[in-house]
Design brief:
Blueprint lengths: L16 H33 L3 E12 L2 E10 L5 E8 L5 E9 L5 E9 L6 E9 L1
Antiparallel strand pairs: 1-2, 2-5, 3-4, 3-6
Amino acid sequence: MAAVREQLPQGRYGRSADQRADRKLKIVGAALAAALLGVIAWIGFDYVGGQSLSAQVIKFKVVSDTSVEVHLEVVKDKNAKGTCTLRAQQTSGDDVGRADFRFDEPVKQIDRVVTITTTSRATAADLVGCQSD
């Protein structure tokens, strides 16, 4: 009995249609993956590079019923100028004081103790945010 061959001989007629389709899918997938990585890198670089001013509250001290001293640390580009907003709150979470502080010094880091005037005794002080000019 003779054996019937159902497949073409290997290498005689080039790649099959399935192999060509697989290769095209791999190329398209690699191109899309490279584009996605490029977009992610661009967004990350823009986010990190776009921030020229950042700040944090190191500590705060309730001085009296009408004021709170806040030790604020600002890190910025040397020539960047900006404003930071601080707030003081009661135990209930209500704001009892809010103040904006401007930073124009041509240095990279500023450590400053600033005073927030309050309408009643505060129990907490925090940084609302900073914006560069």
